[in-house]
Structures are given as structure tokens and as C-alpha cells.
Amino acid sequence: MRREQRYASNSSSTDSSRLRLDNKNRKIAGVCAGLARYWGTHAVFVRLAAVIGLLLAPHAALAVYGLAYLILE
């Protein structure tokens, strides 16, 4: 198997070992769904945590979400 083929097969969208945006299950930008896939949990729990963060500390939650969007591939 050629090197390019191995790399292409390893970078599939279902690969949970890489921290990246999830464009398939996204609601806004895919940050919560990407984090949920990486952590191996349901996106609902991560989205719920994001909403709670927005209610408790909106500026910090928006800053963390923005940074996560920039960091995730």
C-alpha cells in the first residue's frame, strides 16, 4: 500500500483520535460535536455544558468556543 493511501485511510471523518471539527453532526460550527467525538461521548452532553457555560459566564464561554473553533482543524 502506498504511503498516500495509508494516510488517506487514516484521516477519515470517523477517526476519533484526532481533534477536529465535525461537519457532519454540526449545529453551528461543529466544535461541540467534534469535542464529543474526540472524548467518545454524545454531542448533547457537550452542547449542554456549552449552554450552561453561556448562562454562567457568557464572555468566557464565547472566548473558549472561539478558541476551540480556531484550534480544531
- Gyration radius, rounded: 14 Å
The portion of residues assigned to helices is 55-70%
Query: What is the element string, with H for helices and E for strands?
Result: HHHH
> How far from one another are the termini?
26 Å
What kind of oligomer do you see? single chain
Mean pLDDT reading: 77
> Which geometry do the CA atoms define?
globular
- The low-confidence parts are 1-13
What about the largest sheet?
none
Specify the number of helices: 4
Total separate domains? 1
Layout of helices and strands:
Blueprint: H1 3-10, H2 31-39, H3 43-56, H4 58-71
Write up this protein:
- With 73 residues, the protein is mainly α.
- It has one domain.
- It is built from four helices and no strands.
- The protein has helices at 3-10, 31-39, 43-56, 58-71.
- The protein is globular and about 30 Å long.
- The two termini are 26 Å apart.
